[in-house]
Amino acid sequence: MPTFRYSAFKASGSVATGTIDADNLHDAQLRLKNKGLYPKELVPDSEQTGGKARWSLKHRVSLSELALMTRRLATLLGSSVPVYESVTTLYEQERPGELKNILNRIRDRLAEGAPLAKAFASEPHVFSESYISMVAAGEASGALETVLEKLADFLEDQEAVRSKVVTSLAYPVLMLIVGSGVMLFLLSFVVPKIITVFQDSKATLPFITIILIKVSSVLQKWWWLVVLLGCGALLGYDRLRRKESVRQWQDHWMVRLPIVGGLTRQLILSRFAKVLGLLLASGVPVTRSMEITGEVVVNREYRNCLAQVREELIQGGTLAAGLGKSPLFPPLLVHMVAVGEKGGELEQMLAKAGSAFQKEFDTAVTRSMALLEPLLVLGMGVCVGFVVIAVLLPIFQLNELVK
């Protein structure tokens, strides 16, 4: 349902501002009049409608900020502070920024009588469907603070995984950038000044030196074409990856590549098990939990498989049997799910499985980075050695001619 932002007069003459959900502009006006408000200004909320294209230019709420906000809200609710007062407290102590604006809009919706889950749902760019569903289940069961604490734990775990990946990739990416810059500098500025000596000597040059001269000449004369080709390749890839068939093909091979495929599978399985276990523990029905988990798991190979498993659950099948039919889910996970279903502890078993896969992922990332760093050093050494040898070989030949 669209959201409209309003500025209206109360019966007392004071001005009230906020947002209201309505099917259209006329419906929004009627709802405001029923509340005793006379709209002075009533416009669609750009952040929910036409502002999607501009949203990418705005500051996004980070995962760590969302986790901290969720933890604080759970603490306040656990201290028997009402929901509206809790959100107001968070709004007042938050520093100016996007999260403060979001809390202000949520507070306005709570003041209008909306439940917390619906207030969160009006900010879909911040609160995911799984987050909203768990909050709704917590409100229905009366255990909202417990659900929020579990959500905070989950978000903190996801932030830890993201930070580990970023930190692990920082050094290799820096090496690639520096190494590429050094090679471009050598080929564009240093090598051309040296090879003029060899070309003037009219001597027969080694094949490796000829290759170096050709590459250096291309970079000097056609560097703009190289840049255009690189930009064109990036733009072409960006357009291709928007097609569903290309994304399906990319996701298919992403889980089957050496090393990268193993890391991707472990990360997906960890998120699948943790999200599904958290949803079930929060009281969300299993079929609805599978639907939400399928959206959280962005890989289309796993998403299609989870959709089939959900259909089998609707028809009366078991989760373990559905997962066991696909090679994407390892026997360990299937066995733990089967034990959890038989013992009535499916949520706990999924949580254990998620933690196990996350530990495997952390170990694999550490091992892969330890292997990647010396390989990058070796690759840079080979490239620089190629340039050095290509330059030194003609020098040795000239020395032989002089003798």
Summing up helix and strand content along with how strands pair, one would put the structural category as mainly alpha
Kindly report the spatial arrangement of strands forming the biggest sheet.
2-1-3
Major sheet summary line:
3 strands, antiparallel
* Percent range of helical residues: over 70%
Order of helices and strands, N to C? EEHEHHHHHHHHHHHHHHHH
Number of strands: 3
* CATH superfamily annotation of the domain at 260-361: Type II secretion system (T2SS), domain F
Salient structural properties:
403 residues, mainly alpha, Ubiquitin-like (UB roll), Receptor-associated Protein, three-stranded antiparallel beta sheet
Question: What's the short story on this structure?
Answer:
Helices cover 74% and strands 5% of the residues.
Structural description of this entry:
The chain is mostly helical and 403 residues long. Helix content is 74%, strand content 5%. Strands 2-1-3 form a three-stranded antiparallel sheet. The protein is extended, with a radius of gyration of 30 Å. The termini are far apart.
How is the secondary structure organized here?
Elements lengths: L2 E7 L5 E7 L3 H10 L3 E7 L7 H4 L7 H16 L4 H11 L4 H14 L4 H6 L7 H13 L2 H57 L6 H15 L1 H18 L3 H11 L5 H22 L4 H11 L3 H15 L4 H6 L6 H13 L2 H57 L1
Antiparallel strand pairs: 1-2, 1-3
